[in-house]
Automatic annotation (TrEMBL):
Protein name: Uncharacterized protein
Organism of origin: Natrinema salsiterrestre
Amino acid sequence: MTDLQLYTLVVPQDSQSGLLSQLQQQLATSGILEQDGGIVEQLSGQPGDQTVSGVYRARYAGKMADELEELGRASGFDELPLAGVGEKTSKDGYYALESADVDQIQPQTTLVQRYDLQLRKKGTQDDYWRAVKPNRRQLDHPFGNDTAPVEVGVPAAASKVQWFNAEDQSRESASAIETRSAELGDVDIYDLEGGESAVGVEDPTLIYEVPYTDEELTDCRIYDTLGEASKLDADGDLQWQKLFSTQHDFDDEIVLDNGRIRLRLDEPAGTLEAETWDSSTDSWTTVGLEADQPSSVELFDVDLMDVAMVCDRAQLTFDVDGSLFALNAIVNRGHDAVQFTIPAGESGPIPTDLESWLEPIASTSVVDANAAKTLVARNEVRR
């Protein structure tokens, strides 16, 4: 039985007890704004959905089950790739994870966890292009005033990359301006303004094909470190928990990671650190922010705003000499630096000590592509 991969999560061959096709009532799910959940409404029709059931038996089975359960209730993950690892299966396609039920089989141990996943199939690559839809916005910060290029990242594993104008269905081949190496794969960088010139519309969509199991490799991730300093344990297994919900309850350091830069937010210790990926040594290099932290500045609160595959955002509140100051941090796919912006409800400027502390990792761009990963139906592109 072939291993299955659901976005960033793998269902190993030796734990997968069943993969059944079944006919169920069609469901339509409307996301609740500012929440990670949905309202399920019954509609007519009976398309074929998928049930994936199995058992995790491993040292980290409890963590793996928690990841599945959180993905099942998170918003913003409605078009997930499901595919066989290493070979095609008849189930390969794009799915919405309707529910993820997890049970600890034996009360005395977390090493054995049963899961039942309900998946609603949306279609396949024959039905849809994978897409990145920008919605640019201005940023408010003192770290620079660059307005170009407006960077949009796409996996280098993608093919047939095109700029698409949804208003008149025009499209043109897209050319990357740069390729960057990240921890798990390369990212091609495209200039949004070049796309606007190519198809004559503001914020055109990038459409492309990418293998189901490759698209997640360069996506943004957020981890709960669970108190562990290193992502991998001594055996090379992942010991950090993948995080999918803004409502995730964390007690330890969390990490915003796009494979090129990591922002490590340690609210309990009142500090933060950053690491950059060194492709020449295949390792992470510490920037040194924690060592250079001003005595007047403390990380007071971390509020996750978006966990969104190609863009993660958090509002960071700092205690600066006894006064609180909020700053939004944005980590985009393929970017080399963190984009900071003063939120609308905060009064600038950024306090001098805080500005100087964050400057080594701050982007100089004042424009955020504000991209979202989605699907575009092929019949909408067809001429």
